[in-house]
Amino acid sequence: MFEKTRDIFTHLIHPILFMYLAASYIPSTILLLLSPLQLNILFSPSAFKEIWFARFWSTYGPGLQINTSPTIAPLLQRVHGIVLDIGPGSGEWLPLFPKNRITKIYGVEPNRDHHVALRRKIRDCGLEGVYEIVPVGIEDLARAGGLGRGGWIVL
What are the record keywords, sorted (predicted)? Predict the structure, then answer.
């Protein structure tokens, strides 16, 4: 009985903790944007969200990768051929991809604030020429009809 109660509590508290950690980056992001007076970003919810989440994820993402690797790594080792990497962020999972069995990876990442770190990780993992960043959201791919030859959106 105690174990089941503990599991329920854990499953409830983890999402709340994740939301709290993410929200804790909002004040520092506001201060970051106030110093050069980037008011256009402060008053654009979507632009602010991109910067705020990139800042949060650059700190929290690597830790998440370390903690969940025992579960995720075996799944990634089975991929082969052409891979669609949805929301790669700054590329925390790239070192776990089996390079010898992948011919192409399309990384669908709309948050351009992640692209610099993602390109660095692509280079560090030896995936240049194999990994291509598709700078749109997965929703955009669905509306446009998906990926076509050459990797870009087919209208």
Answer: Membrane, Transmembrane, Transmembrane helix
